[in-house]
Amino acid sequence: MRIRTLVAATGALALSLVSGCAQGGAAGSSANTVTYWLWDANQLPAYQACAKGFEKENPGLKVKITQLGWSDYWTKLTAGFIAGTAPDVFTDHIQNFGQFADLKVLEPLDDLGIKNSDYQPGLAANWVGKDGHRYGAPKDWDTVALFYNGKMAKDAGLTAEQLGELSWNPKDGGTFEKAIAHLTIDKKGKRGDEPGFDKNNVKVYGMATGGGGFGDGQTQWSPFTGSAGWNYLDKARWGTKYQYDSKTFQSVVKWYFGLAKKGYMPPLSDYNIQSNQQNTQIAAGKAATAFDGAWMISTYTGFKGRDIKTARTPVGPTGKRATMMNGLADSVTKASKNKAGAKKWVAYLASDKCQTVVGKYGVVFPATAAGTEAAVAAYRKKGIDVSSFTEPVADKKHARTFSYPIASYSADMTALMQPAMEDIYGNGKPVSSLDQTNDQINLILSQ
């Protein structure tokens, strides 16, 4: 899961105040035990299987796995860094990597011999810090696609082929907006593109809401800003300036949130990160489509009575479709008292030996090519077509993949962008207000 709250952000900020105070070693750490934390319960069985393989190859070493929910995970990890009770190894997220690297709570992994060519494009390079040292070994990857209710699409006269070839622009929304409008139905049965449609009394929205999208918009507006050619930072990694003041970015955001004003997407007040996310709206039949990540494939396809299918993200003004390609990694904590064992475990996690095992569970796309192939085969065996997620990675001519913004002070950026985007979405604040927010973020980044 890549669900987001501000827990990680505020935790990292708190950590910055007391960094370097930790004493002692990792929780449960010993010379013959490696402690490992992850947050996704769906992936727990796969990594338990990897642990058995690792222990067989390394007699005398044991792996103790702890799975925590997303919010608890980051809260306890941050507390562990401060108290010296963090695990030896933990699943790391790119949104927190910059902060953790700056605070020097991660152990360099240069001696693991991680090669960019051994993993899907860009995944390994993302975990090299500003200082040139590696702090994460690639674990898995995900992209974003459009989940849709097959029955609703059929009732609207929209075919899978049509939904897979949609295009958009910030002026009139293109065929994408036309499709979303036609999928929208008010309480009297009028569709969004029909005379008499009541945007204030909608029964089924054409597209679910994922909230304001913070500063990355991964499963909200990023497929649109990405296909418009916009970049978060002035450099792909460790940039020195955010670009939320870009006219391109602001025009896309204005159009995107404008879908709610037209009644095609729910108002911000309908969204709740705990109880009413995109998938919840689809499951309840309140929305016909939703942009969401590959980590949610099993969730959507598991909805009873819902014929859920997927389509690629729409083609934008650049002539390409786009999706964020995010990837998790495994990191070793600097306070670990079993660094030798921890690094052996991380190296095993990053190898085909483990990643093909994980792939066979069909819950995530592992970072290596062999692991990805195993996952695709596992999904196919379940009758699930995942090409909407995999094709953009392979088809560089017609699709663009881009990373979550990698920079220092990412927690501060998130803390500033969350209310700014919600003000635009929920309160009608002009997109030009992002100029000031961007200046505030860049002032922090320049420190």
Kindly summarize this structure in a few lines:
The protein has 447 residues and is α/β, with parallel strands linked by helices. The protein folds into 2 domains: 33-141 and 326-402, D-Maltodextrin-Binding Protein, domain 2; 143-325 and 404-446, D-Maltodextrin-Binding Protein, domain 2 (3-Layer(aba) Sandwich), CATH 3.40.190.10. The chain has helices at residues 7-18, 44-57, 70-83, 94-102, 150-155, 160-164, 174-183, 222-227, 247-261, 278-283, 297-301, 339-349, 352-360, 369-381, 387-394, 410-427, 434-445, and strands at residues 33-38, 62-67, 89-92, 137-138, 140-141, 144-149, 185-186, 202-204, 289-293, 308-311, 321-324, 329-332, 365-366, 399-402.
Globular, elongated, flat, extended or rod-shaped: what is the shape?
A: globular
CATH architecture of the largest domain: 3-Layer(aba) Sandwich
Number of strands: 14
Percentage beta strand: 5-15%
In the CATH scheme, the class of the largest domain would be Alpha Beta
- SS element count, helices: 17
- Record the strand order, biggest sheet: 2-1-3-12-4
Model regions low in confidence, pLDDT < 50 over at least 5 residues: 1-14, 16-24
Number of structural domains:
2
- Residue-averaged pLDDT, rounded? 93
